[in-house]
């Protein structure tokens, strides 16, 4: 019995993942011409075209789709034969971890994470990149290692793990007139608000909750960053809804701001970390994911309100 050429399986995995001869060639450090010849060999071996032209791109055939997960498993298992799946030398590990997250996560959770990396893997780098459209493609293409978000990835192959849950509270300047009386939905809606949106969107779940009570708020300011918006509050009567862990930053920085429970019902958010399956068994990436999750849990616990 003739054994299959493992190089063809690795190439097939790259082709199915990238959906492009050029992309697969780049990943395998081959020329496009060499990868094109390899695709021809794969087609001959499988008796199937594998990838066919559709407009300017390539799409997988039904047989290719059927084989995708099986090929990935075989390639990953073969890779484990040549490396330890459980051990990584953190002292000599040199790697940059790219994490896509918003400023709330960076400001509240990033400090403990980088401190842990500095102590355990001093030669590694942590690079936070801003949220943006096409996050799933960035994971697929290997431009980011992790995506931290409260939305689920659109691509089904992406791995997802829950990190923590959070709820929103209100934040205003010290001495704000909203604090003079009981905070009702009507009084909450009567003051101007800051809307947080990297896309510049003024309306969201808060507006939907107010609308259920026949109320509407005014949003004169839209900002892309929670922490930048916090520094606007002392000079205005603006209200800023923030994830409750942001209060940890308020306390640490000694900001003269006051928080309050929102008088409307909003859903609890679940923050997750997502990564591409190509990194699932990678020992350094696995260590980083576990370290990030442990770090988040410690900071989350520290940020929880204590009962008096």
Automatic annotation (TrEMBL):
It comes from the Bacteria. CDD domains: PBP2_DntR_like_1. InterPro entries: LysR-type_TF, LysR_HTH_N, LysR_subst-bd, WH-like_DNA-bd_sf, WH_DNA-bd_sf. The keyword Transcription regulation applies. Residues 4-61 form the HTH lysR-type domain. PROSITE patterns: HTH_LYSR. One of its GO terms (molecular function) is DNA binding. Keywords: DNA-binding, Transcription, Transcription regulation. Pfam families: HTH_1 (PF00126), LysR_substrate (PF03466). Belongs to the LysR transcriptional regulatory family. This is Nodulation protein D. The lineage of its organism: Bacteria, Pseudomonadati, Pseudomonadota, Gammaproteobacteria, Pseudomonadales.
